[in-house]
Amino acid sequence: MSSNQSLPTTIEALETKAREHKQAQNTQFHVSVARTNIRELNRELDSLATSLSDLQYYTAVLEGAFDESAPTMVRTAVTQAKKAVAVTQDTLLTNLQSGEFAEEAALPSDDGYDSDELTPEVKTQISKIQSAKTQVDDVTNTIVDQLEKEAKSWKTKVTAAEELQKIIGGKNTDFARTLTHLQKLLRNQLLDPSGSASNFVDQWGNATSNWEEYQSLQSFDDFQAKHNLSKSTIEDIKKLSKSKRLTLADVSLDSLTEMKNVPELESAVELSL
Questions:
Q1: Residues 179-192: tens digit of each pLDDT
Q2: How far apart are CA 112 and CA 94, in angstroms?
Q3: Residue 2: inside a domain, yes or no?
Q4: Rounded Cα gap, residues 204 and 207, in angstroms
Q5: pLDDT tens, 74-90?
Q6: What is the DSSP string of the chain?
Q7: What total of structural domains would you count in the chain?
């Protein structure tokens, strides 16, 4: 301290420095709290965006691949989500700047946040976003239930066709590839929203078009109708799924005759005494 500086001047200078230091601390605190508000709001927005992306995927698959109408709740949920994220950046900054925080509140940590660090406006905004997300998730679950029912029905049909293919020796390689493709789509891609909905719809359309070309190989009923087989012969054919070798005690002569008249079965049946 200069010797020629008066005591009042020195005290005033110290007080000024103290005020500046306190102001700097307050500024740092408000900036840190503002960052917490923005971080938590962005976290909720990201979560809602993910839910909306999932909903968009499942809706597109339901309508495009299975020609089913999406629930009317979809439009309501999307509208609610749009309202929840309608806050502008300028409004958000104004809310953060006008927010009042307790002077003695601790600085927010990087590991989480205290609800007291959020402005009332941001709390309200987060509540709206969470409510919209719940609505989106609910309608998404409804659509997923519909898709699971479709998948179950198709898996049953594909499995039956695969069983018939095993009995007749899988002679039709094109149809065998179609069955493998269908199983892959149903098991790995149908309920995977990280994929492309349009890509799934295109692949599904190609696979099901190929499926329709082989109606007589889709089930035992279709196979029976094409080859004019009796019910008893069909039952005997089903035994081939358990064993490729039949004995005379397993089949009747009529069934054997019918089987031998079907090219796909003639080499598949091995009869022993």
A1: 999 999 999 999 99
A2: 23
A3: no
A4: 5
A5: 999 999 999 888 865 56
A6: --TTS-HHHHHHHHHHHHHHHHHHHHHHHHHHHHHHHHHHHHHHHHHHHHHHHHHHHHHHHHHHHH--PPPTHHHHHHHHHHHHT---HHHHHHHHHH----TTPPPPPTT---GGGS-HHHHHHHHHHHHHHHHHHHHHHHHHHHHHHHHHHHHHHHHHHHHHHHHTTS--HHHHHHHHHHHHIIIIITT-TTS-HHHHHHHHHHHHHHHHTTGGGS-HHHHHHHHT--HHHHHHHHHTTT-SEEETTTS-HHHHHHHHTSHHHHTT-EEE-
A7: 2
Paired strand residues for 270: 245
Of the residues 197, 212, 227, the one at which a domain ends? 212
Question: Looking at the structure, do residues 163 and 236 belong to the same domain, yes or no?
Answer: no
